[in-house]
Amino acid sequence: MELENLNPNVYKKSDDRKSVAADWNDNVDDPFDEREIFDLIRLINDPEHPLTLEELHVVQQNLIKVDNEQNEVFVNFTPTIPHCSMATLIGLSIRVKLLRSLPPRFKVTVEITPGTHTSEIAVNKQLADKERVAAALENSNLINVINQCIAI
After folding, report:
1. CA distance 8 to 57
2. Is the pTM for the entire model greater than 0.70?
3. 10 Å Cβ neighbour count for 37?
4. How many structural domains is the chain composed of?
5. How confident is the model over 34-80, as pLDDT tens digits?
6. Is 90 exceeded by the pLDDT of residue 104?
7. CATH number at residue 45
8. How far apart are CA 68 and CA 72, in angstroms?
């Protein structure tokens, strides 16, 4: 397989989130926040490089929004190049990781950061279409690749 982006920029990883006593107290209301969502997806492996989505700045905490009242999680991701053919696979990997990790009450939306991909509208349409996502996840080869990306 020929790599599309031979020399991607690699960024420093964030420090691990420091836990406090309230994190372990079941009696304390602990709503989801952007950092928690970021921690769930930052270590997803890029399908082309032996790097994480965080190291490539494909996912960033400031591109995540959480609305606990409306039970919504919104993630923008930024492909490393404007014509990345792996954008849909990356978006599916993020979506699958969150759907497997979050309570089912959350509606998860994953989109390309506006203006960062030549096929942004088409990829966003695919990622938003529940039937297309379900069909993609029934493909055993595709789900194997996604599982490799999200394995930690």
Report:
1. 10
2. yes
3. 25
4. 1
5. 999 999 999 999 998 899 999 999 999 999 999 999 999 999 999 99
6. yes
7. 3.30.300.130
8. 6
The length of the chain in residues reads: 152
Q: Is residue 121 part of a domain?
A: yes
Dist. CA 125–CA 130, nearest whole Å: 10
Q: Please write down the HEC assignment for all residues of the chain.
A: CCCCCCCCCCCCCCCCCCCCHHHHCCCCCCCCCHHHHHHHHCCCECCCCCCECCCCCCCCHHHEEEECCCCEEEEEECCCCCCCCCHHHHHHHHHHHHHHHCCCCCEEEEEECCCCCCCHHHHHHHHHCHHHHHHHHHCHHHHHHHHHHHCC
The first and second tokens of residue 117, run together, are: 């991909």
CA-wise closest residue to 17 among 38, 43, 45, 46 = 38
